[in-house]
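ok posting inputs for the iron/sulfur cluster job
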Amino acid sequence: MSEFDKKNSARTKLDLLVCGIQDNAALFNKFCSYFKEEHYAYDNGNWGVDKDRLVPSEIMLPGDIVCKLHIRPDSKYELFEDNGTLLITKNKKEISEFSFIQKPKFWQFETSSGIPMKSLAQMYGKNCLNFNIYSGCEFHSKHLPCHFCSVSSTVKRTNPVKIKKSPSELAEVCQAASKNDTVDYIIITGGSYLDSDKEFMTHLNVIDAIKSCLPWNGDIKGNISMMPPKDFNLLKCLYDRRVSNPSFNMEVWPQENFDRICPGKSKYVGFSHIIDSLKFLVSLYGSGAVWSNFVAGLTPLECLKDGFLFMAENGIVPGANIYHPEVSSLIENSIKVSHDYVCRLYSFAAELYVKYNYKPYFNESILRNSLANEFYHGLL
Ligand code: SF4
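and the output
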């Protein structure tokens, strides 16, 4: 794989994350028994897609660069097959090949109590096991969701994911995935509870249940994302349990945007408490292990850059997913992100990573909705 080809893949990923892709029911129906389909465990960026039809969650671009698919009918990008070759076009002109990503093998199995493992977990990108302990969020029930979030409507589907998963069910999933698939990392998240102590203990119980079922000698190699407990001294439990990259995601910056766009997090947890908790984690872990993720595109670029800088200066690795409109979120598709915004943000992030000796999250075959790795490695 030449550097030129990898750069073309990174450029294609940028285009698809900013602009989305058109639906292609015939192609997707043809390959739906093979590809890893959209799981709808917490988000739905597929506009105009019948709920019961399978569509791919991601595609792989040449050079092992994964890209999330967001189906938007007005996109000028399309996927199609030509004599057995899968291609991406822009305005009907070919720009790249791609491949579908195979369904994880653990999806074939059920837990000992008969629950399909497919309803419990997903593979994120190439080989990162991923589950939401709670595929819901109590901020929605108080009409205080993050404005970009669609979890409560997304999970109201036929054949939904299981909303609340037990530690023992998830332990069985971890065992099956470790045995039958390649698992290099894990992402554990949840929706939030109004009582952040309950949320924290839910995560801790799952960590205790799954530790011995994963292939890393008791380490939790990956990201645990949640809201911090009221007493941040409890966060020592994450360090003691060898969770490699805990995160509390700020989403937007500064506080006035946080309070407006994430009103549930603001009311029930609080901007300052999240910052204090992140700093406490850094006092345990040192610089460069604690993460905080943002959504790129919701606020002016300079606001987000200020947030990235604040985090980096305080030992926290900032990251961002590129904003994609979610069906039935509060802001739906009223916001458009530009190529320029995305490129300037991730260039800035790459400079910070180099300056502070940080690494972007995971790698480019896993981080499907971000270009942090591609910019860091000079592909864009
Ligand atoms: S905390 Fe915000 S982003 Fe997370 S599930 Fe709740 S509403 Fe959605």
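notes: Residues 60 and 177 are 20 Å apart (CA to CA). The mean pLDDT is 96.
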